[in-house]
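We were asked to recover a plausible sequence for a given structure. The inputs and outputs are reproduced exactly as logged, with field labels preserved.

PROBLEM: sequence recovery
POSITIONS: 340
GIVEN STRUCTURE:
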Protein backbone atom coordinates (compact mmCIF):
# COMPACT_ATOMS: atom_id res chain seq x y z
CA UNK A 1 0.00 0.00 0.00
CA UNK A 2 1.37 3.39 -1.01
CA UNK A 3 1.81 6.10 1.64
CA UNK A 4 -0.60 9.04 1.71
CA UNK A 5 1.02 12.48 1.64
CA UNK A 6 -0.07 15.75 3.22
CA UNK A 7 1.60 18.98 2.08
CA UNK A 8 1.88 21.96 4.45
CA UNK A 9 2.91 25.25 2.90
CA UNK A 10 2.16 28.94 2.53
CA UNK A 11 0.25 27.83 -0.56
CA UNK A 12 -1.64 30.22 -2.83
CA UNK A 13 -2.74 30.48 -6.45
CA UNK A 14 0.51 32.06 -7.72
CA UNK A 15 4.20 32.26 -6.95
CA UNK A 16 7.20 30.03 -7.58
CA UNK A 17 6.86 27.73 -4.54
CA UNK A 18 3.11 27.32 -5.01
CA UNK A 19 3.57 26.52 -8.71
CA UNK A 20 6.17 23.85 -7.86
CA UNK A 21 3.76 22.31 -5.33
CA UNK A 22 0.84 22.39 -7.77
CA UNK A 23 2.82 20.60 -10.46
CA UNK A 24 4.24 17.94 -8.15
CA UNK A 25 0.94 17.09 -6.52
CA UNK A 26 -0.81 16.96 -9.88
CA UNK A 27 1.65 14.26 -10.91
CA UNK A 28 1.27 12.37 -7.63
CA UNK A 29 -2.51 12.33 -7.97
CA UNK A 30 -2.20 11.15 -11.56
CA UNK A 31 -0.31 8.17 -10.16
CA UNK A 32 -3.12 7.44 -7.68
CA UNK A 33 -1.22 8.70 -4.62
CA UNK A 34 -3.56 10.06 -1.93
CA UNK A 35 -2.58 13.69 -1.24
CA UNK A 36 -3.81 16.84 0.45
CA UNK A 37 -2.49 20.41 0.53
CA UNK A 38 -2.91 22.44 3.73
CA UNK A 39 -2.14 26.12 3.40
CA UNK A 40 -1.09 28.55 6.12
CA UNK A 41 -1.75 31.44 3.74
CA UNK A 42 -4.74 33.74 4.11
CA UNK A 43 -5.93 36.90 5.85
CA UNK A 44 -3.60 37.82 8.70
CA UNK A 45 -6.21 37.25 11.41
CA UNK A 46 -7.02 33.77 10.09
CA UNK A 47 -3.45 32.49 9.87
CA UNK A 48 -3.11 31.49 13.57
CA UNK A 49 -6.30 29.43 13.28
CA UNK A 50 -5.04 27.72 10.13
CA UNK A 51 -1.79 26.84 11.87
CA UNK A 52 -3.55 25.56 15.01
CA UNK A 53 -5.88 23.41 12.89
CA UNK A 54 -2.98 21.49 11.34
CA UNK A 55 -2.82 18.76 14.05
CA UNK A 56 -6.47 17.87 13.41
CA UNK A 57 -5.99 17.65 9.64
CA UNK A 58 -2.81 15.60 9.32
CA UNK A 59 -3.61 12.55 11.43
CA UNK A 60 -4.74 10.20 8.68
CA UNK A 61 -1.70 10.84 6.47
CA UNK A 62 1.51 8.81 6.50
CA UNK A 63 3.96 11.46 5.24
CA UNK A 64 4.10 15.20 5.82
CA UNK A 65 5.75 17.22 3.09
CA UNK A 66 6.46 20.67 4.56
CA UNK A 67 7.60 23.60 2.41
CA UNK A 68 9.11 26.92 3.40
CA UNK A 69 11.68 29.60 2.76
CA UNK A 70 13.19 32.44 4.79
CA UNK A 71 11.68 34.97 7.20
CA UNK A 72 7.86 34.63 7.47
CA UNK A 73 8.05 31.90 4.85
CA UNK A 74 9.70 29.71 7.50
CA UNK A 75 6.48 29.51 9.59
CA UNK A 76 5.08 26.39 7.81
CA UNK A 77 8.38 24.60 8.44
CA UNK A 78 8.53 25.62 12.11
CA UNK A 79 5.03 24.40 12.97
CA UNK A 80 4.58 21.66 10.37
CA UNK A 81 7.73 19.77 11.33
CA UNK A 82 6.98 20.01 15.05
CA UNK A 83 3.38 18.85 14.66
CA UNK A 84 4.58 16.00 12.47
CA UNK A 85 7.12 14.89 15.06
CA UNK A 86 4.47 14.93 17.79
CA UNK A 87 2.25 12.61 15.75
CA UNK A 88 5.23 10.44 14.68
CA UNK A 89 4.81 11.09 10.98
CA UNK A 90 7.53 10.71 8.42
CA UNK A 91 8.61 14.26 7.57
CA UNK A 92 10.01 15.36 4.23
CA UNK A 93 10.85 19.07 4.34
CA UNK A 94 11.72 21.26 1.37
CA UNK A 95 13.60 24.48 1.99
CA UNK A 96 13.26 26.76 -1.04
CA UNK A 97 15.81 29.38 -0.08
CA UNK A 98 15.63 33.13 -0.39
CA UNK A 99 18.39 35.12 1.26
CA UNK A 100 19.44 32.22 3.52
CA UNK A 101 22.80 33.67 4.55
CA UNK A 102 21.26 36.88 5.84
CA UNK A 103 18.35 34.96 7.40
CA UNK A 104 20.44 32.55 9.47
CA UNK A 105 23.02 35.17 10.48
CA UNK A 106 20.43 37.75 11.63
CA UNK A 107 20.82 36.68 15.29
CA UNK A 108 21.68 33.62 17.39
CA UNK A 109 18.09 32.77 18.30
CA UNK A 110 17.01 32.74 14.64
CA UNK A 111 20.02 30.58 13.75
CA UNK A 112 19.13 28.10 16.52
CA UNK A 113 15.48 27.96 15.40
CA UNK A 114 16.48 27.31 11.78
CA UNK A 115 18.98 24.56 12.59
CA UNK A 116 16.85 22.84 15.22
CA UNK A 117 13.79 22.89 12.96
CA UNK A 118 15.37 21.63 9.75
CA UNK A 119 17.36 18.93 11.54
CA UNK A 120 14.12 17.43 12.87
CA UNK A 121 13.03 16.47 9.36
CA UNK A 122 13.62 12.86 8.34
CA UNK A 123 14.60 14.07 4.88
CA UNK A 124 15.43 17.65 3.96
CA UNK A 125 15.44 18.59 0.29
CA UNK A 126 16.59 21.75 -1.49
CA UNK A 127 16.19 22.69 -5.17
CA UNK A 128 19.84 23.52 -5.91
CA UNK A 129 23.40 22.52 -5.11
CA UNK A 130 23.99 26.16 -4.16
CA UNK A 131 21.47 25.86 -1.30
CA UNK A 132 22.80 22.47 -0.26
CA UNK A 133 26.27 23.97 0.17
CA UNK A 134 24.90 26.95 2.09
CA UNK A 135 23.04 24.72 4.55
CA UNK A 136 26.02 22.39 4.92
CA UNK A 137 28.14 25.30 6.16
CA UNK A 138 25.82 25.42 9.18
CA UNK A 139 25.81 21.66 9.75
CA UNK A 140 22.45 21.05 8.03
CA UNK A 141 22.42 18.04 5.71
CA UNK A 142 20.11 17.97 2.69
CA UNK A 143 19.61 16.33 -0.68
CA UNK A 144 19.05 18.14 -3.99
CA UNK A 145 15.78 17.58 -5.83
CA UNK A 146 15.16 20.35 -8.38
CA UNK A 147 11.78 21.96 -8.82
CA UNK A 148 9.61 20.80 -11.69
CA UNK A 149 8.43 22.73 -14.69
CA UNK A 150 5.21 22.22 -16.59
CA UNK A 151 5.37 20.07 -19.72
CA UNK A 152 3.59 22.83 -21.64
CA UNK A 153 6.84 24.81 -21.87
CA UNK A 154 8.38 22.02 -23.99
CA UNK A 155 5.73 22.43 -26.70
CA UNK A 156 7.19 23.00 -30.16
CA UNK A 157 6.54 26.48 -31.51
CA UNK A 158 7.93 28.94 -34.01
CA UNK A 159 10.87 31.00 -32.79
CA UNK A 160 11.65 34.25 -34.58
CA UNK A 161 14.98 35.79 -33.50
CA UNK A 162 14.48 38.77 -35.80
CA UNK A 163 11.59 40.13 -33.68
CA UNK A 164 14.07 41.31 -30.98
CA UNK A 165 11.56 40.88 -28.15
CA UNK A 166 13.35 40.47 -24.82
CA UNK A 167 11.48 38.91 -21.90
CA UNK A 168 11.90 39.25 -18.14
CA UNK A 169 9.73 37.36 -15.63
CA UNK A 170 10.11 37.93 -11.88
CA UNK A 171 8.79 39.75 -8.83
CA UNK A 172 9.67 43.44 -9.00
CA UNK A 173 11.93 44.00 -6.03
CA UNK A 174 15.48 45.16 -5.44
CA UNK A 175 17.12 41.75 -5.06
CA UNK A 176 16.16 40.81 -8.62
CA UNK A 177 18.02 43.72 -10.18
CA UNK A 178 15.37 45.12 -12.52
CA UNK A 179 17.10 48.49 -12.36
CA UNK A 180 20.18 46.80 -13.84
CA UNK A 181 17.94 45.19 -16.46
CA UNK A 182 16.61 48.57 -17.58
CA UNK A 183 20.07 50.11 -17.76
CA UNK A 184 21.27 47.16 -19.83
CA UNK A 185 18.26 47.43 -22.12
CA UNK A 186 18.92 51.14 -22.70
CA UNK A 187 22.27 50.12 -24.24
CA UNK A 188 20.71 47.24 -26.18
CA UNK A 189 18.17 49.68 -27.63
CA UNK A 190 20.96 51.89 -29.00
CA UNK A 191 22.43 48.95 -30.90
CA UNK A 192 19.14 47.24 -31.78
CA UNK A 193 16.70 50.13 -32.43
CA UNK A 194 13.58 47.93 -32.79
CA UNK A 195 14.23 46.01 -29.54
CA UNK A 196 11.32 45.64 -27.14
CA UNK A 197 11.39 44.57 -23.48
CA UNK A 198 8.44 42.85 -21.81
CA UNK A 199 8.49 42.71 -18.00
CA UNK A 200 6.08 40.21 -16.43
CA UNK A 201 5.50 40.47 -12.71
CA UNK A 202 4.24 42.71 -9.94
CA UNK A 203 6.05 44.12 -6.94
CA UNK A 204 6.82 47.15 -4.79
CA UNK A 205 9.34 48.63 -7.26
CA UNK A 206 6.95 49.01 -10.19
CA UNK A 207 6.47 52.78 -10.08
CA UNK A 208 10.14 53.38 -9.33
CA UNK A 209 11.14 51.22 -12.29
CA UNK A 210 8.67 52.93 -14.61
CA UNK A 211 10.23 56.26 -13.65
CA UNK A 212 13.72 54.88 -14.32
CA UNK A 213 12.56 53.72 -17.76
CA UNK A 214 11.39 57.29 -18.48
CA UNK A 215 14.71 58.73 -17.31
CA UNK A 216 16.60 56.30 -19.57
CA UNK A 217 14.32 57.29 -22.48
CA UNK A 218 13.19 53.69 -23.09
CA UNK A 219 9.70 53.83 -21.58
CA UNK A 220 7.95 53.46 -24.96
CA UNK A 221 9.95 50.29 -25.67
CA UNK A 222 9.25 48.67 -22.29
CA UNK A 223 5.95 46.94 -21.45
CA UNK A 224 5.18 46.42 -17.77
CA UNK A 225 2.57 43.66 -18.03
CA UNK A 226 2.08 43.09 -14.32
CA UNK A 227 0.72 39.72 -13.26
CA UNK A 228 0.01 37.18 -15.97
CA UNK A 229 -2.07 34.15 -15.02
CA UNK A 230 -0.04 30.95 -14.97
CA UNK A 231 -2.23 29.39 -17.66
CA UNK A 232 -1.33 32.30 -19.96
CA UNK A 233 2.37 32.70 -19.14
CA UNK A 234 3.39 30.15 -21.77
CA UNK A 235 2.40 32.62 -24.50
CA UNK A 236 4.82 35.24 -23.12
CA UNK A 237 7.71 32.82 -23.54
CA UNK A 238 6.57 31.61 -26.96
CA UNK A 239 6.26 35.13 -28.39
CA UNK A 240 9.63 36.28 -27.04
CA UNK A 241 12.97 35.98 -28.85
CA UNK A 242 15.42 36.24 -25.94
CA UNK A 243 15.38 36.05 -22.14
CA UNK A 244 17.21 38.31 -19.66
CA UNK A 245 17.78 37.67 -15.95
CA UNK A 246 19.56 40.18 -13.70
CA UNK A 247 19.10 38.74 -10.20
CA UNK A 248 21.35 39.82 -7.35
CA UNK A 249 20.14 36.90 -5.19
CA UNK A 250 18.48 33.71 -6.47
CA UNK A 251 18.71 30.28 -4.87
CA UNK A 252 16.81 28.63 -7.73
CA UNK A 253 15.30 30.26 -10.81
CA UNK A 254 12.27 28.46 -12.17
CA UNK A 255 11.78 31.17 -14.81
CA UNK A 256 15.20 30.43 -16.32
CA UNK A 257 14.24 26.77 -16.63
CA UNK A 258 10.91 27.73 -18.22
CA UNK A 259 12.76 29.98 -20.65
CA UNK A 260 15.18 27.13 -21.41
CA UNK A 261 12.37 24.68 -22.11
CA UNK A 262 10.71 27.29 -24.33
CA UNK A 263 13.95 27.57 -26.31
CA UNK A 264 14.94 31.15 -25.54
CA UNK A 265 18.60 32.17 -25.69
CA UNK A 266 19.41 33.42 -22.19
CA UNK A 267 21.67 36.11 -20.75
CA UNK A 268 21.84 36.01 -16.96
CA UNK A 269 23.82 37.10 -13.96
CA UNK A 270 25.79 34.26 -12.37
CA UNK A 271 24.41 34.25 -8.84
CA UNK A 272 23.34 31.50 -6.45
CA UNK A 273 21.45 28.53 -7.86
CA UNK A 274 21.36 29.98 -11.36
CA UNK A 275 24.83 28.52 -11.87
CA UNK A 276 23.34 25.06 -11.27
CA UNK A 277 21.21 25.64 -14.36
CA UNK A 278 23.25 27.73 -16.82
CA UNK A 279 26.68 26.76 -18.10
CA UNK A 280 28.28 29.81 -19.68
CA UNK A 281 28.57 29.46 -23.45
CA UNK A 282 26.60 26.19 -23.52
CA UNK A 283 22.96 26.90 -22.67
CA UNK A 284 23.24 30.62 -21.92
CA UNK A 285 25.63 33.50 -21.46
CA UNK A 286 26.62 34.51 -17.91
CA UNK A 287 27.76 37.82 -16.45
CA UNK A 288 29.49 37.30 -13.09
CA UNK A 289 29.05 40.83 -11.76
CA UNK A 290 25.32 41.36 -11.15
CA UNK A 291 25.74 45.15 -11.36
CA UNK A 292 27.59 45.09 -14.69
CA UNK A 293 24.78 46.21 -16.98
CA UNK A 294 27.25 47.02 -19.76
CA UNK A 295 28.36 43.37 -20.01
CA UNK A 296 24.76 42.18 -19.87
CA UNK A 297 23.93 44.45 -22.79
CA UNK A 298 27.06 43.38 -24.66
CA UNK A 299 26.18 39.67 -24.40
CA UNK A 300 22.57 40.30 -25.40
CA UNK A 301 23.71 42.21 -28.48
CA UNK A 302 26.18 39.41 -29.24
CA UNK A 303 23.32 36.89 -29.39
CA UNK A 304 21.21 39.17 -31.60
CA UNK A 305 24.11 39.64 -34.04
CA UNK A 306 25.11 35.96 -34.12
CA UNK A 307 22.12 33.79 -35.14
CA UNK A 308 24.18 30.60 -35.11
CA UNK A 309 25.20 31.21 -31.48
CA UNK A 310 21.60 32.00 -30.60
CA UNK A 311 20.41 28.71 -32.13
CA UNK A 312 23.15 26.75 -30.40
CA UNK A 313 22.23 28.22 -27.01
CA UNK A 314 18.54 27.60 -27.74
CA UNK A 315 19.01 23.94 -28.67
CA UNK A 316 21.27 23.24 -25.68
CA UNK A 317 18.88 25.01 -23.31
CA UNK A 318 15.92 22.91 -24.45
CA UNK A 319 17.94 19.72 -24.05
CA UNK A 320 19.20 20.68 -20.58
CA UNK A 321 15.69 21.61 -19.41
CA UNK A 322 14.69 17.94 -19.63
CA UNK A 323 16.51 17.57 -16.31
CA UNK A 324 13.55 19.36 -14.70
CA UNK A 325 10.82 17.23 -16.28
CA UNK A 326 8.71 14.96 -14.04
CA UNK A 327 9.97 11.85 -15.80
CA UNK A 328 13.51 12.75 -14.72
CA UNK A 329 12.75 13.85 -11.15
CA UNK A 330 10.00 11.33 -10.31
CA UNK A 331 12.26 8.64 -8.82
CA UNK A 332 13.96 11.10 -6.46
CA UNK A 333 10.61 12.15 -4.97
CA UNK A 334 9.34 8.59 -4.79
CA UNK A 335 12.47 7.60 -2.88
CA UNK A 336 12.02 10.52 -0.49
CA UNK A 337 8.38 9.72 0.19
CA UNK A 338 8.90 5.95 0.37
CA UNK A 339 6.72 5.22 -2.65
CA UNK A 340 7.51 1.94 -4.35
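RECOVERED SEQUENCE:
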Amino acid sequence: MQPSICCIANYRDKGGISTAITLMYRHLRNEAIATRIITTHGPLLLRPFRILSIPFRIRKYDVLHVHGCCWLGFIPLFFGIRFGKFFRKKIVATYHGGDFERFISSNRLVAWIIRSTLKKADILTVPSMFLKKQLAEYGIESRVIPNLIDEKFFTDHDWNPSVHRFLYVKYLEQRYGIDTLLRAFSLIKKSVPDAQLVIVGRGPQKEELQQLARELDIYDAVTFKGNVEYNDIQNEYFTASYFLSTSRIDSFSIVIIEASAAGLPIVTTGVGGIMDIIKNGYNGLVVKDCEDYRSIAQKAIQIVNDPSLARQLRDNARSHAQKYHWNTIRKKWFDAFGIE
